[in-house]
Design goal:
Blueprint (H helix, E strand, L loop, with lengths): L3 H5 L7 H15 L9 H15 L2 H8 L11 H14 L13 E7 L1 H6 L1 E12 L15 E2 L8 E8 L2 E8 L8 E2 L12 E12 L8 E4 L15 E7 L6 E3 L2 E9 H6 L1 E7 L2 E7 L8 E4 L15 E8 L6 H12 L14 H12 L1
Parallel strand pairs: 1-9, 11-15
Antiparallel strand pairs: 2-7, 3-6, 4-5, 8-9, 10-11, 12-13, 14-15
Helix pairs in contact: 2-3
Protein backbone atom coordinates (compact mmCIF):
# COMPACT_ATOMS: atom_id res chain seq x y z
CA UNK A 1 0.00 0.00 0.00
CA UNK A 2 0.94 3.60 -0.46
CA UNK A 3 3.43 5.14 1.94
CA UNK A 4 4.20 8.85 2.49
CA UNK A 5 6.25 9.07 -0.71
CA UNK A 6 3.54 7.37 -2.74
CA UNK A 7 0.85 9.61 -1.23
CA UNK A 8 2.76 12.69 -2.44
CA UNK A 9 3.69 10.99 -5.74
CA UNK A 10 7.45 11.47 -5.39
CA UNK A 11 10.47 9.20 -5.35
CA UNK A 12 12.31 8.33 -2.16
CA UNK A 13 15.26 10.30 -3.51
CA UNK A 14 13.12 13.44 -3.98
CA UNK A 15 14.62 16.71 -2.77
CA UNK A 16 12.95 18.93 -0.20
CA UNK A 17 11.91 21.34 -2.97
CA UNK A 18 10.33 18.52 -5.01
CA UNK A 19 8.38 17.36 -1.94
CA UNK A 20 7.14 20.90 -1.30
CA UNK A 21 5.98 21.33 -4.93
CA UNK A 22 4.15 17.98 -4.86
CA UNK A 23 2.39 18.92 -1.66
CA UNK A 24 1.30 22.34 -2.95
CA UNK A 25 -0.12 20.78 -6.11
CA UNK A 26 -2.10 18.13 -4.20
CA UNK A 27 -3.23 20.58 -1.54
CA UNK A 28 -4.75 22.85 -4.19
CA UNK A 29 -6.61 19.88 -5.67
CA UNK A 30 -7.86 18.34 -2.43
CA UNK A 31 -8.49 21.33 -0.16
CA UNK A 32 -12.11 21.10 1.12
CA UNK A 33 -12.78 24.68 0.04
CA UNK A 34 -11.96 23.71 -3.53
CA UNK A 35 -12.92 20.05 -3.71
CA UNK A 36 -16.21 19.22 -1.92
CA UNK A 37 -15.90 15.53 -2.77
CA UNK A 38 -16.74 13.06 0.05
CA UNK A 39 -13.18 11.65 0.19
CA UNK A 40 -11.29 14.88 -0.49
CA UNK A 41 -11.13 15.92 3.18
CA UNK A 42 -9.58 12.61 4.31
CA UNK A 43 -7.19 12.57 1.35
CA UNK A 44 -6.15 16.13 2.18
CA UNK A 45 -5.33 15.03 5.76
CA UNK A 46 -3.24 12.13 4.44
CA UNK A 47 -1.31 14.43 2.10
CA UNK A 48 -0.74 16.99 4.86
CA UNK A 49 0.50 14.35 7.29
CA UNK A 50 2.85 12.90 4.69
CA UNK A 51 4.27 16.36 4.00
CA UNK A 52 4.68 17.11 7.71
CA UNK A 53 6.83 14.01 8.09
CA UNK A 54 8.90 14.26 4.90
CA UNK A 55 9.51 18.02 5.11
CA UNK A 56 11.21 17.64 8.50
CA UNK A 57 14.75 16.26 7.98
CA UNK A 58 14.84 14.44 11.32
CA UNK A 59 11.40 12.87 10.96
CA UNK A 60 12.14 11.91 7.36
CA UNK A 61 15.35 10.18 8.44
CA UNK A 62 13.52 8.27 11.13
CA UNK A 63 10.77 7.35 8.67
CA UNK A 64 13.30 6.08 6.13
CA UNK A 65 14.87 3.94 8.87
CA UNK A 66 11.57 2.28 9.63
CA UNK A 67 9.93 4.71 12.05
CA UNK A 68 6.30 5.72 11.75
CA UNK A 69 7.06 9.38 11.17
CA UNK A 70 6.18 11.96 13.77
CA UNK A 71 6.57 9.62 16.73
CA UNK A 72 10.32 9.00 16.78
CA UNK A 73 12.30 5.83 16.26
CA UNK A 74 11.74 3.47 19.15
CA UNK A 75 14.69 1.15 18.63
CA UNK A 76 14.21 -2.49 19.55
CA UNK A 77 10.76 -1.83 21.03
CA UNK A 78 9.49 -0.76 17.61
CA UNK A 79 11.13 -3.75 15.97
CA UNK A 80 9.40 -6.19 18.30
CA UNK A 81 6.17 -4.29 17.76
CA UNK A 82 6.68 -4.76 14.03
CA UNK A 83 6.87 -8.55 14.35
CA UNK A 84 4.40 -9.21 17.17
CA UNK A 85 2.05 -6.24 16.97
CA UNK A 86 1.57 -5.99 13.24
CA UNK A 87 -0.01 -9.42 12.95
CA UNK A 88 -2.52 -8.51 15.61
CA UNK A 89 -3.41 -5.17 14.07
CA UNK A 90 -3.82 -6.61 10.60
CA UNK A 91 -6.20 -9.34 11.76
CA UNK A 92 -9.12 -7.35 10.40
CA UNK A 93 -11.01 -4.06 10.67
CA UNK A 94 -12.23 -3.07 14.10
CA UNK A 95 -15.92 -2.92 14.81
CA UNK A 96 -17.75 0.36 15.27
CA UNK A 97 -19.84 -1.32 17.91
CA UNK A 98 -18.22 -0.92 21.30
CA UNK A 99 -19.37 -1.59 24.83
CA UNK A 100 -20.84 1.42 26.59
CA UNK A 101 -19.29 2.97 29.67
CA UNK A 102 -20.32 2.08 33.20
CA UNK A 103 -22.23 4.67 35.22
CA UNK A 104 -22.34 5.47 38.94
CA UNK A 105 -25.36 6.90 40.74
CA UNK A 106 -25.78 7.71 44.42
CA UNK A 107 -29.08 6.86 46.04
CA UNK A 108 -30.41 7.69 49.52
CA UNK A 109 -32.72 5.32 51.42
CA UNK A 110 -34.41 5.54 54.79
CA UNK A 111 -33.34 3.31 57.65
CA UNK A 112 -36.81 1.76 57.58
CA UNK A 113 -36.20 0.69 53.96
CA UNK A 114 -33.07 -1.14 55.04
CA UNK A 115 -34.98 -3.48 57.38
CA UNK A 116 -36.69 -5.44 54.61
CA UNK A 117 -35.43 -3.85 51.39
CA UNK A 118 -37.29 -1.59 49.00
CA UNK A 119 -38.10 -1.29 45.30
CA UNK A 120 -37.23 2.00 43.62
CA UNK A 121 -37.73 3.44 40.14
CA UNK A 122 -34.93 5.76 39.09
CA UNK A 123 -34.62 8.19 36.19
CA UNK A 124 -31.23 7.89 34.54
CA UNK A 125 -29.72 10.38 32.07
CA UNK A 126 -27.75 8.12 29.76
CA UNK A 127 -27.01 7.10 26.16
CA UNK A 128 -29.60 5.01 24.33
CA UNK A 129 -29.78 3.55 20.82
CA UNK A 130 -30.72 6.12 18.19
CA UNK A 131 -34.25 5.35 17.00
CA UNK A 132 -33.68 7.04 13.66
CA UNK A 133 -30.83 4.76 12.51
CA UNK A 134 -31.25 1.93 15.02
CA UNK A 135 -27.54 2.05 15.81
CA UNK A 136 -26.31 1.82 12.21
CA UNK A 137 -24.89 5.39 12.34
CA UNK A 138 -26.09 5.94 8.75
CA UNK A 139 -28.83 8.11 7.36
CA UNK A 140 -31.98 6.22 6.43
CA UNK A 141 -31.60 4.25 3.21
CA UNK A 142 -27.77 4.40 3.23
CA UNK A 143 -25.01 2.17 4.50
CA UNK A 144 -21.23 2.37 5.04
CA UNK A 145 -19.03 2.05 1.97
CA UNK A 146 -15.76 0.16 1.77
CA UNK A 147 -12.69 2.32 2.35
CA UNK A 148 -10.85 2.72 -0.96
CA UNK A 149 -7.54 3.31 0.79
CA UNK A 150 -7.28 0.08 2.80
CA UNK A 151 -9.83 -1.83 0.67
CA UNK A 152 -11.82 -2.71 3.78
CA UNK A 153 -8.96 -4.24 5.76
CA UNK A 154 -8.80 -1.38 8.25
CA UNK A 155 -5.00 -1.25 8.10
CA UNK A 156 -2.22 -0.02 5.85
CA UNK A 157 0.80 -2.24 5.22
CA UNK A 158 4.12 -1.17 3.86
CA UNK A 159 7.66 -2.51 3.55
CA UNK A 160 10.25 -0.53 5.49
CA UNK A 161 13.90 -0.96 6.30
CA UNK A 162 14.93 -1.76 9.86
CA UNK A 163 17.96 -3.08 11.68
CA UNK A 164 16.79 -6.57 10.75
CA UNK A 165 16.29 -5.79 7.06
CA UNK A 166 13.12 -5.13 5.11
CA UNK A 167 9.98 -5.95 7.14
CA UNK A 168 6.27 -5.47 6.63
CA UNK A 169 4.57 -3.11 9.06
CA UNK A 170 0.89 -2.59 9.58
CA UNK A 171 -0.88 0.42 11.05
CA UNK A 172 -4.55 1.51 11.28
CA UNK A 173 -5.84 3.19 8.16
CA UNK A 174 -5.95 6.94 8.69
CA UNK A 175 -8.86 7.40 6.31
CA UNK A 176 -11.36 5.02 7.93
CA UNK A 177 -9.64 4.96 11.35
CA UNK A 178 -9.33 1.20 11.20
CA UNK A 179 -13.01 0.44 10.60
CA UNK A 180 -12.56 -0.64 7.00
CA UNK A 181 -15.64 1.34 5.98
CA UNK A 182 -16.58 5.01 5.72
CA UNK A 183 -19.94 6.51 6.60
CA UNK A 184 -20.55 8.98 3.80
CA UNK A 185 -24.07 9.90 4.98
CA UNK A 186 -24.15 9.92 8.78
CA UNK A 187 -27.47 9.87 10.58
CA UNK A 188 -28.54 13.50 11.18
CA UNK A 189 -30.23 12.62 14.49
CA UNK A 190 -27.21 11.10 16.27
CA UNK A 191 -24.45 12.61 14.11
CA UNK A 192 -23.24 9.17 13.07
CA UNK A 193 -22.76 7.91 16.64
CA UNK A 194 -25.60 5.38 16.64
CA UNK A 195 -26.76 6.63 20.05
CA UNK A 196 -28.31 9.71 21.63
CA UNK A 197 -28.69 11.11 25.16
CA UNK A 198 -32.03 10.47 26.80
CA UNK A 199 -33.68 9.87 30.15
CA UNK A 200 -34.99 6.42 30.92
CA UNK A 201 -36.43 4.71 33.96
CA UNK A 202 -34.66 1.87 35.74
CA UNK A 203 -36.41 -0.35 38.27
CA UNK A 204 -34.13 -1.25 41.18
CA UNK A 205 -34.57 -3.80 43.98
CA UNK A 206 -32.53 -2.55 46.93
CA UNK A 207 -31.94 -5.58 49.16
CA UNK A 208 -32.42 -5.58 52.91
CA UNK A 209 -29.32 -5.06 54.99
CA UNK A 210 -27.53 -2.54 52.77
CA UNK A 211 -25.47 0.14 54.49
CA UNK A 212 -23.87 3.44 53.59
CA UNK A 213 -21.05 3.03 51.07
CA UNK A 214 -22.26 -0.27 49.64
CA UNK A 215 -22.33 -0.43 45.83
CA UNK A 216 -24.92 -2.43 43.93
CA UNK A 217 -24.16 -3.57 40.38
CA UNK A 218 -26.91 -3.58 37.78
CA UNK A 219 -25.46 -5.49 34.84
CA UNK A 220 -26.33 -4.08 31.42
CA UNK A 221 -28.13 -1.02 32.81
CA UNK A 222 -25.41 1.51 31.93
CA UNK A 223 -25.17 3.53 28.72
CA UNK A 224 -25.36 1.89 25.31
CA UNK A 225 -22.10 1.79 23.38
CA UNK A 226 -21.22 3.55 20.11
CA UNK A 227 -23.05 2.18 17.06
CA UNK A 228 -25.55 0.47 19.35
CA UNK A 229 -22.92 -1.57 21.18
CA UNK A 230 -23.61 -3.52 24.36
CA UNK A 231 -24.68 -1.59 27.45
CA UNK A 232 -22.23 -0.97 30.25
CA UNK A 233 -23.17 -1.58 33.88
CA UNK A 234 -24.88 0.75 36.32
CA UNK A 235 -23.53 1.00 39.86
CA UNK A 236 -25.61 2.38 42.73
CA UNK A 237 -23.80 3.70 45.80
CA UNK A 238 -26.12 3.60 48.80
CA UNK A 239 -26.41 6.19 51.54
CA UNK A 240 -28.70 5.44 54.49
CA UNK A 241 -30.34 8.58 55.87
CA UNK A 242 -29.98 9.54 59.52
CA UNK A 243 -32.90 8.51 61.75
CA UNK A 244 -33.92 10.68 64.70
CA UNK A 245 -34.51 7.73 67.06
CA UNK A 246 -32.88 4.55 65.78
CA UNK A 247 -29.25 4.00 64.88
CA UNK A 248 -27.51 0.93 63.56
CA UNK A 249 -24.71 -1.31 64.76
CA UNK A 250 -24.14 -4.07 62.23
CA UNK A 251 -27.59 -5.59 61.80
CA UNK A 252 -28.77 -4.52 65.25
CA UNK A 253 -30.89 -1.42 65.84
CA UNK A 254 -30.10 0.77 68.84
CA UNK A 255 -32.28 3.27 70.71
CA UNK A 256 -32.63 4.83 74.16
CA UNK A 257 -35.72 4.03 76.24
CA UNK A 258 -36.53 6.73 78.80
CA UNK A 259 -38.22 5.28 81.92
CA UNK A 260 -39.66 7.26 84.79
CA UNK A 261 -38.11 6.61 88.18
CA UNK A 262 -41.26 5.05 89.65
CA UNK A 263 -41.62 2.71 86.67
CA UNK A 264 -37.97 1.71 86.95
CA UNK A 265 -38.51 0.87 90.63
CA UNK A 266 -41.81 -0.97 90.30
CA UNK A 267 -41.51 -2.26 86.71
CA UNK A 268 -43.80 -1.55 83.78
CA UNK A 269 -44.56 -2.40 80.17
CA UNK A 270 -43.37 0.02 77.48
CA UNK A 271 -45.02 0.18 74.08
CA UNK A 272 -43.75 2.18 71.09
CA UNK A 273 -43.53 2.14 67.30
CA UNK A 274 -40.54 0.35 65.82
CA UNK A 275 -39.35 0.67 62.24
CA UNK A 276 -41.50 -2.31 61.27
CA UNK A 277 -44.49 -1.98 63.59
CA UNK A 278 -45.45 -1.80 67.29
CA UNK A 279 -43.02 -3.08 69.92
CA UNK A 280 -43.84 -4.07 73.49
CA UNK A 281 -41.11 -4.62 76.11
CA UNK A 282 -41.12 -5.43 79.79
CA UNK A 283 -39.22 -3.10 82.10
CA UNK A 284 -38.38 -5.23 85.14
CA UNK A 285 -38.57 -3.84 88.68
CA UNK A 286 -35.29 -2.29 89.75
CA UNK A 287 -34.12 -1.48 86.25
CA UNK A 288 -31.08 0.81 86.27
CA UNK A 289 -29.87 3.46 83.87
CA UNK A 290 -27.66 1.95 81.16
CA UNK A 291 -29.32 -1.48 81.43
CA UNK A 292 -29.90 -3.07 78.03
CA UNK A 293 -33.26 -4.52 77.00
CA UNK A 294 -32.94 -6.78 73.95
CA UNK A 295 -35.84 -7.50 71.60
CA UNK A 296 -34.83 -10.49 69.51
CA UNK A 297 -35.21 -10.48 65.71
CA UNK A 298 -36.48 -6.91 65.43
CA UNK A 299 -33.36 -5.47 63.83
CA UNK A 300 -32.20 -5.34 60.19
CA UNK A 301 -32.52 -8.34 57.89
CA UNK A 302 -29.12 -9.84 57.14
CA UNK A 303 -27.77 -8.82 53.72
CA UNK A 304 -26.45 -12.30 53.08
CA UNK A 305 -28.31 -15.21 54.59
CA UNK A 306 -31.55 -15.36 56.52
CA UNK A 307 -32.67 -13.96 59.85
CA UNK A 308 -32.53 -10.53 61.43
CA UNK A 309 -30.51 -8.66 63.99
CA UNK A 310 -31.93 -7.51 67.33
CA UNK A 311 -33.39 -4.31 68.68
CA UNK A 312 -31.36 -3.19 71.70
CA UNK A 313 -32.69 -0.51 74.01
CA UNK A 314 -30.48 1.36 76.43
CA UNK A 315 -32.47 2.40 79.49
CA UNK A 316 -32.29 5.92 80.87
CA UNK A 317 -34.06 6.35 84.20
CA UNK A 318 -35.55 9.84 84.40
CA UNK A 319 -35.41 11.46 87.82
CA UNK A 320 -38.11 14.10 88.39
CA UNK A 321 -36.78 17.59 89.04
CA UNK A 322 -39.96 19.24 90.29
CA UNK A 323 -42.12 17.61 93.01
CA UNK A 324 -45.07 19.03 94.90
CA UNK A 325 -45.17 18.79 98.67
CA UNK A 326 -47.23 15.59 98.66
CA UNK A 327 -44.82 13.83 96.31
CA UNK A 328 -41.83 15.00 98.35
CA UNK A 329 -43.42 13.59 101.50
CA UNK A 330 -43.98 10.24 99.85
CA UNK A 331 -40.37 10.12 98.70
CA UNK A 332 -39.21 10.93 102.24
CA UNK A 333 -41.34 8.13 103.62
CA UNK A 334 -39.89 5.75 101.06
CA UNK A 335 -36.34 6.80 101.91
CA UNK A 336 -36.90 6.45 105.67
CA UNK A 337 -38.22 2.94 105.17
CA UNK A 338 -34.93 1.79 103.65
CA UNK A 339 -31.47 1.48 105.12
CA UNK A 340 -29.49 4.52 104.18
CA UNK A 341 -26.74 3.88 101.61
CA UNK A 342 -24.00 6.43 101.38
CA UNK A 343 -22.94 7.65 97.92
CA UNK A 344 -20.07 5.52 96.56
CA UNK A 345 -17.08 6.83 94.67
CA UNK A 346 -16.38 4.77 91.51
CA UNK A 347 -14.35 5.07 88.32
CA UNK A 348 -15.22 8.23 86.33
CA UNK A 349 -17.52 7.70 83.34
CA UNK A 350 -18.88 10.21 80.86
CA UNK A 351 -22.47 9.93 81.99
CA UNK A 352 -25.16 7.69 80.59
CA UNK A 353 -23.89 7.67 77.01
CA UNK A 354 -20.51 6.31 78.10
CA UNK A 355 -22.25 3.58 80.05
CA UNK A 356 -24.56 2.77 77.18
CA UNK A 357 -21.68 2.55 74.74
CA UNK A 358 -19.80 0.18 77.01
CA UNK A 359 -22.89 -1.96 77.51
CA UNK A 360 -23.77 -2.02 73.79
CA UNK A 361 -20.26 -3.09 72.89
CA UNK A 362 -20.16 -5.83 75.51
CA UNK A 363 -23.62 -7.31 75.10
Amino acid sequence: MADHYQILGVERTATAEEIKKAYRRLARELHPDVNPGPDAHEQFKLVTHAYDVLSDPQQREQYDLGGSGGSGFGGFGDIFETFFGAAQRSSGPRSRRERGQDALLRIEVDLADVVFGVKRELEVDTAVVCDACEGSCCAKGTQPVTCDICQGSGSIQRSVRSLLGNVMTSSPCGTCRGYGTIITNPCPTCGGQGRVRARRKVSVDIPAGVETGLRLQLAGQGEVGPAGGANGDLYLEVKVRHHDIFSRSGDDLLATLEVQMADAILGTTAEFDGLDGPVSVEVKPGTQSADIITVKDRGVTHLRGSGRGDLRLGVQVVTPTKLDSKAQELIKQFASSRKKVEPTLTHFQQGLFQKLRDRFLNV
